[in-house]
Amino acid sequence: MQRLAIQGGNRLNGEVRISGAKNAALPILCAGLLTDDALQLGNVPEMNDVATMCKLLQQMGVKIEVNGGQIALSAAHVDKFEAPYDMVKTMRAAILVLGPLVARFGEARVSLPGGCAIGSRPVDLHIKGLQAMGAEIHIEHGYIHAQAKRLKGARIFFDLISVTGTENLMMAATLADGVTVLENAAREPEVVDLAHCLIAMGARIEGAGSDTITITGVGRLHGASHRIMPDRIESGTFLVAAAATGGSITLTDTRADILDNVLEKLQEAGATIQVAGGTISLQMNKRPRAVNVRTAPYPAFPTDMQAQFMAMNTIAEGSAMVVETIFENRFMHVQELRRLGAQIDVEGNTAVIKGCAQLEGAAIMATDLRASACLVIAGLVAQGETIVDRIYHLDRGYEHIEAKLSALGAQIRRIK
Ligand code: UD1
Fold it and tell me: What is the pLDDT of residue 386?
């Protein structure tokens, strides 16, 4: 198992290019199933979740050509409509093939995702939505088996805001007969990016980015080219790392307009932020101030940035409260941060962090993707060496993270 060895204490300085967004690339790759023409994608990040999704699509018969960040897909000859358990258990986003498969081929067999380190994460809303559109669904031997001659447009109200649920049903609705209205839909920028790609493929979608999305089904979709949007969570992660180390960095190829809440919190912590075109610069000349954070669906503070802010709060001046409202068990990083000397109390979905002057390096273990990023940030500020174990979580969703951090002056190396 690979580990990262980090020698803490260096400030991050310099420029870093932000990669394409993982959470946009994964649904957009699945959108390739909706047409028998070629879909050309640019700015696709190189990371394990993208590789896993490509492998899954290839197993179904999709032809995929990868050339750096360019991926060309052709789903002209799909002959297997299945996402097996071994794929879904490593990457829950594999559930995103469900909607496209039923919509285009009238059939899908997708493993139910099991539990997950950060919570139970059911997919009942995906299933209910497809049923409302006329799909017959049976759960057999741990698999969702869905069938429909042709899906029918429907009005679907989400009890809970679900990002991949919205994406799955939006994709399914593009080929349904009639109009589908998704209410209380997720407003995340990645939903909007997927809608842009689908519209380029000939889909009729209105309202993506608001809580009501209207999709008028069409008979077929065609090929298109689409460039994946920048990763707002990778952007936020580098900004927090720079702020925590008292550094000065510039992100390029990113977007500030989708990071409002995160940038505001960083300013509250004492950082100076400048935005120009696709760049964001951050300078932090002092010890950060502790900042309260409450996660909620977009445009509120993202749950995928909660752990990174927790890392910064551990060494901040003052105390902060972090409230997690999306996932019930997303504080796995707390135990590990405590091993570095952090002072954190947890009560239910609330963590209270008392900033300390210095963390001390130790051996720690990553438990999920964003928790891994939090531990890396903690390692960057801790005194001495921190070894982060189980970094396969990190490799799922960050492109070349240690190369990017090294280029910014961090002392970080991979131990194989
Ligand atoms: C997506 C993101 C993930 C992010 C999360 C919340 C991708 C690939 N992943 O995950 O990085 O942390 O949004 O912003 O885009 N829920 C149900 N029933 C359902 C679906 C969801 O109860 O059918 C619950 C979940 O357990 C969770 C909440 O709704 O408590 C939100 O989950 P959801 O938005 O669906 O997360 P994902 O789409 O899996």
Answer: 98
